[in-house]
Amino acid sequence: MARSPGAWLVAFDQQERIAFDVDSMMAGQPVHELWDETGDCYIHLFPRSTGKGPSFRLSSSVFASSASLTKMAFGRLYSDNTLADQEPGRDLSGQFSIKSDGSRSTRQSLEEASGEVHLHLDLRLNGNPAPVPPKKSKNTPISEDAETMIEMRNLFGFLCGQALVATEKRFTLFSIFMRIAEHLQRHEFSNMDSSTFGEVASSSFDSYVNELQLADVRRSSEKAVEMLLLGERMRSVGLYNEAFTHAVGKLEDIKRVAPTTYNAVSSATQTRLSRAAMDLEKRIANASATCTDFDMPSIFSGIMSSRTVDERQYVNFDAWKSSFFTTRKFIVGYYKALFGSWPPKPNPKKNQLQSPGLSRIVLLQLYNDLSAVYDLIVDHTALTNRTADGVSIEERSTDPPRIRALRHVLSEWDRSSPPVKPPMPFDIPNLPRSGEPKISKKFKSEDLVKVLQASHNPTSRPTSFVQAFREFERSQAKGCTIEEIADLRYGQWIFMYAVLQELPLLVVDAPSIRYTAGVEYFLCEASRGGVPWARDAASAGRSHQWYGVAGGAGVVSLPSDVIENSIEAIYRRSHCWIMAQQWSAENPIMAAAVEEQQRAAATDLVPPPPIGSPGLRVDSRSSSPARSKRESVLNLGLEAIPLPSGVSPDRRVAPGGPASRPVSMHVSDPAKTFDAILADVGGKPGKKRK
């Protein structure tokens, strides 16, 4: 009876086991995939007393981030006094000679060592033979010593990017990498702030994550929490963030199917998961209140219900309300026909849904459909004059009465429930227009089609929902005057705007999430704060960015995740804001303003001018109140400042950079001469220019 190998190579989507030659390794022969003829370090798995030779030959740079292995390999050449306490210095180019991961100085010392280097590992072998397998067993057992050696083979194979070896004891990728993480921790692999295990280990694990698709946890709650734990143990920000977002979406299922693994996750991560799950529940509740039956009474409780507002003499609010409810009826009917019911239920004859209710897939389809209609009828030449506080008082008189009333209604909706929603950059529709002087004239069928088509943007996406909306719009406008058709458009717009503004907090996925296709749970919650495994969890592994404050001369440094996960940033990543950026880029005035801002901010080694300063002006319009408010809508109050690495406007160490790296002082002082800069680098007084 043929037995399966006791150790085998691991591959993605493996169909059969490819045997690993354990016997040759146990006999002291070199492991060919870990034998580099150009390597400077011989690695011994067996004690000196056995007389067996080295098993691996590698470049010592692969373990340069390990303090203990470096000491074991180089002995007296490695000294805490000469390396650990070494102060970073600069060469004449102004570059630091020590990288942020602390490995460059070690690597330089290793390169200075001459001759062969031998690393003897204390593996504590017991010499016991492999157990005898049962007669009916198809497995080939291996000894405890072989298990120990395979673990070390996997450690160095991991550092070199080789295939890993599985055994009956550790046959899953999760268990293999968890053991590798233990060895990395035991041998003191680390960068400067302990946010990773060093450059080699970090880049190698990223490659494994990509090739083995470790971050694809969509189909298994157990794998989701395993990869979350593995992300912590392997100090992988990418894997941790991906698994975290997926874990939030199915947290209750994780606690049910994998309680032991969940309890092994750090308390900091568990707290983050609980808080993110609570926030997700609130978002789902808000969206459900709006989209379950599209009942939005707050829209009609403000200006539209008032009998005394000035706008009422120009605006037929009752017609708007009637059009709103007609549109609501059309939407519900469309999705009932599509899914079989609304809210949808799993129905093999109608849909492929696995979970009932307003899932991520359902709300994504609703959002994408309404976004397509938004593209069809939006006026993308009229940038809003609204802010999150409502209609700008200074510009109330510049809008026609109907537009002013519409924006008032939209602002009331944006502020009707927390969180307050930022107004869409382009927030009014194209209105049907007629060349006929008589506004009371009712259109014939062929003329009606022309009028409606003229109010549509030709670049919009042709979808089945858009086609259904066109037919619905045509049926509603039949026998109407141009004014009545405009009132229909206003009501349709209010409905569409309200739903589109409600959904981004759920349907816009967290930044950098890769595996999203087919996921029914929501992927909108990202991990916030620094990595939980670092010494300074609040800042390690957390990038910072300098931002200019719109309308002022100040700058502020904020963690990137705070900005990326803010309400404003989420909306900025949504469809209406993305399209606004594209449409603004097509506007020569706006495009010139953006180009000028980028040019000014990118000036080499010169601090950026204050936002709103004359250096950013394109023409007289750029300094007008309307212009500044429009930029505020698009930029949401903060403008990222692209600065060179290690440079900050306040002369401090750049956030997210290594703690030992000072800021280039000549950047903060533009008056300093080049001689003075070189003098600072060399530590000598500079000569003044004559």
From TrEMBL:
Protein name: DUF8004 domain-containing protein
Region of interest: Disordered: 600-670
Residue span(s) of domain DUF8004: 203-295
Superkingdom of origin organism: Eukaryota
